[in-house]
Amino acid sequence: MGRRFNLYLFLLMVPGVAFFAAFFLLPLARLALSSAEGPQGFKVYLLSLTHPRYFTTLLNTLLLSIAVTLATLVISGFSGVFLTRNQFLGKNFVLSMLTFPLAFPGVVVGFMIILLVGRQGLIGDVTRWLVGEKLVLAYSLTGLFLGYLYFSIPRVIITLMAAAEKIDPRLEEAARSLGASPFRVVKDVLIPALVPGLISSGAICFATSMGAFGTAFTLATDIDVLPIVIYTEFTLLANITTAAALSIVLGLITWIALSIARSISGTTVAAAG
Amino acid sequence: MKKKSKLFYIQLSLTLLVCAFLIVPVVLSVTAGLTANYIVGVRSGLTLQWFGKVWELYRDTIFRSIMIGLVCLGCTLMLGIPAAYAMVKKQNRFTRIFEELLVTPLAIPGLATALALIVSYGRFTDFRKSWLFILVGHVVFTLPFMVRSVIAVMNSANTTQYEEGAASLGAGFWHRFFHIVIPIAMPGILAGSLMVFTLSIGEFNLTWMLHTPTTKTLPVGLADSYASMRLEIGSAYTIAFFIMIIPLLIAMQWVAKPPRKKVIPEKTELSTDLRRTTEMEKNALERNPIPRDRGREPVSGTSLRLENCSKTFPDGTQALKPFSLSVKTGETVVILGPSGCGKTTMLRIIAGLETPDPPGRVFFGDEDVTELPIEKRNVGMVFQSYALFPNMNVAENIAYGLKVRGLGAAERERRVSEMLEMMKITELRNRRVDQLSGGQKQRVALARAIAVRPRLLLMDEPLTALDAKLRDVLRAEIDSLLRSLGITAIYVTHDQAEAMALGDRIVVMEIARVSQVGTPREIYFKPQNRFVADFIGTLNRVTGRVEGKGLIVPGGTIPLEGISHLQPKAGEEFEVFFRPEQAEVVGPGEGHFKATVAASFFMGDHTRLLLDWTDASYLTIEAKSNQVFRKGDLVEIRIDPASLLTLRT
Fold first, then answer.
1. What CATH number should be reported for the domain whose range is A39-265?
2. What is the DSSP string of B525-585?
């Protein structure tokens, strides 16, 4: 297995590398350059970050994503561990229900939220019947929060269930045999064992929330989150340099978040959707 | 079952709440279409009407999405699988960087990727306006999923052993890639394919930026239908989308489940079964030993010569110091040594899986094969892990090397049957490899290696993975097989009993070097150094001072006439060695020295005695099994003077 073998391997790599360079690496470099093609040059980054509208947008998006991440982790952690450790009637049904929304694109998630808490939504009908007033959350920050939650929960539950399944149940039994209370077992055994899973799935959740466009596009008629702002800058205002600069900033944030998570938890993590 | 705690019910209700949050809107989307119809007064074909509307308005988006999804899948397969394989095989800086880069599309929001594509290629209007533009975006986005899925399977399935197996049977690079690597990676390819197709169908972030009014896809159409403010149409369209993805989701879960393996119980029935067959085989062999000319061409063995072969690994460790070796045609040579001594490296050099450091040379007969890769050497190899191809059944495994050599179907069939018969596994012909027991796998591996009529049969610890009883049976079988075929064979093992039983000659290896080469008798009775003597059997070491013709030891004097050629000087400290069976317990006054029993082990055919010797050592003696000893007994020991050994360290 000498030189010939290496040559063949090289030949196998070529198409993939060429395609990837031509349609991802070079365009991304081009995007970074074109952000500096405006009159301000590379100052566009400084300007767009200090500009009050963009700055609040960035802050909004960050806070929203962090909130969604924390909420998702808590909820999915509870349910995920519960589902791996307990058997009950209809568990498989519940599992398939929980994973059904996995393949929904963001727009569909947005529509689901409209059906739930929109103007003609279920919650609105219920509250009108109860209090006489329609509760409409869909087109606000709360709606976005719910949408991102809807999007993230199935993914995170799957990851955490896989992580929880790998924990040796004898660890918990050992802790209990040494006199640990259920609370201490959770704190000393379960959570430490879940940490890598929590970090990696949390990072995915954060990154997808930062970049989620479909849900925001369906719901966010008047909320500024970064993807929507980039979209409006580009298509409606034709402000290419700002759009490019903002999307580079957005890409950097998500990339850094995922890299940190990867270096801590040691697994490859990926955002999707 | 114990009573469920309060905690259980709290967690259960939370989980059900989450479930409701996720599913209620889905149900609502279904009912939205229905109620709207009902209110309007359409009572027949309630939702079908809106489905008709969706069909009318958006069917082109559905078709386009499916087309893009399929073409995208094709592209990721063609680009991703070769790249994944190359990255698994070749771990250097370049491939690692590429692997890193390849996951970045997962971390970069689709919006940014889409903008980058528009900024770079937007001015090619024909391209920009066609669905190919969206396709490119989808391929960039989904390629990492395919690559990662394939890499994961290739790593966990450890394709290297199967590739080496295929190479040993003569398969070249491309044959291995298409017939071994891809079939083995199939679960990963399948999972990746479903993932890619599903992602492509549902992709919105990139697509919304990349699409044009004439190239709308399904999610774009969905967004349009929601924006049209007609809840019924949006609902109907969403339901259509659900119906499309449900089979994909089910397929994904089905693929993710590990296949349940049917394991056949190994020890109980099998070993008796094997015992019977070997018994039969032995009888058969005695009655009519395998005739070499019964329609079978004689196996054309070759002699083997290694000249100054050494091996240094890229990290600088020397796995093998230079050595030379000749093996005659038809000879069986066993390479014996502790684990990590380099014996497998030696075998891999002979096989052609490793090349020796220059100027080392490997000759088969008079042919210099040093530069030939294994697939050109025409050797048969039995791997420790067997490396049976999991994607082929027993007969296909055995036929593989013949197929690579281009033999016709009829001839292949004939030889496979012959091999199955020879190995007594005819009934396993159509079994899947994972349904075989260890011993059966071993036979198939041997049959596969011999079927190609190799010039040289190489075996890398073929019996190590089996339990002791089975090992004995198969050892006898391999022995009779090697004798009857008259094949030149190299056999690697760490088990000295195996080496003694099988080898015409034994190469004993110490860490990275050859310690001694000789027949089993030479190795046992005339070990050249202490390593060999220690490694083969048990050896007692006795030190004392020389006086006259004897060695003064605690409790007596050992006569030294057997090693008089060394002429130890009087008064000198001297060291001799003997084996447990070369000493015996004798009556009072007949022995050379006395010692106290520290422990005795009844072994059935003999009793093994441990005698207190010095502070840090015991002597091991074999006594007759009808003698009974207790701890603390004083016994007299007599040593056969001719069997005493002196050894270099």
1. 1.10.3720.10
2. HS-SBHHHHHHSS--EEEEEEEETTEEEETTEEEE-GGGGGG-PPTT-EEEEEE-GGGEEE
CB proximity A68 to B under 8 Å: no
Cis peptide before B359 (omega within 30 of 0): yes
Contact: B204, A10; criterion CB under 8 Å? no
Best of A107, A145, A204 to mutate (most B CBs within 10 Å, chain B): A107
pLDDT digits (tens, 9 = 90+) for B59-79: 888 899 999 999 999 999 999
Tally Cβ neighbours within 10 Å of residue A76.
29
How far is B469 from A54, CA to CA, in rounded Å? 76
**Residue B242 confidence (pLDDT) above 60:** yes
Alpha carbon of B161: minimum distance to chain A alpha carbons (Å):
14
Q: Are the beta carbons of B22 and A100 separated by less than 8 Å?
A: yes
For residue A185, pLDDT beyond 50: yes
Q: Report the residue of chain A nearest B26, measured CA to CA.
A: A112
CB B446 within 8 A of CB B419: no
Give buried/exposed letters for B410-437 (b at 16+ CB in 10 A, else e). eebeebbebbbebbbbeebeebebeebb
Domain boundaries, chain A: 1-34, 39-265
Is B28 or B447 the better-scoring residue by pLDDT?
A: B447
How high does pLDDT run on average in chain A?
Answer: 82
More confident residue, B614 or B121: B121
> Residue A20 and residue B107: Cβ atoms within 8 Å?
no
Mean pLDDT calculated for residue range B463-478: 83
Q: Considering only CA atoms, which of B91, B205, B106, B202 is closest in space to residue B146?
A: B106
Q: In this structure, what DSSP letter does residue B265 have?
A: P
Domains and CATH numbers, chain B: 28-256 (1.10.3720.10), 304-529 (3.40.50.300), 538-643 (2.40.50.140)
The ipTM of this complex is: 0.85
User: In chain A, whose CA is at the least distance from the CA of B195?
Assistant: A103
Of B103, B65, B130, B523, residue with least CA distance to B334: B523
CA distance B125 to B506: 75
Residue B273 pLDDT level (bands cut at 50, 70, 90): very low
- Report the phi/psi class of residue A77: left, alpha or beta, with left for phi > 0 and alpha for psi in -120 to 50: alpha
Question: What is the rounded CA–CA span in Å between residue B208 and residue B219?
Answer: 8
Between chains, do A30 and B120 touch, taking CB under 8 Å as contact?
Answer: yes
Does the beta-carbon distance from B29 to A231 stay under 8 Å? no
Around Cβ B2, how many Cβ atoms within 10 Å? Answer: 4
- Provide, as residue numbers in chain A, all residues whose Cβ is less than 8 Å from the Cβ of B102: 20
* Interface membership of A100 toward B (CB under 8 Å): yes
Beta bridge partners of B637: B585, B593
Rounded to whole angstroms, the Cα distance separating A81 from A193 reads 12
Q: Which two tokens stand for residue B97?
A: 């960087």
| Nearest residue on chain B to A107, alpha-carbon basis | B223
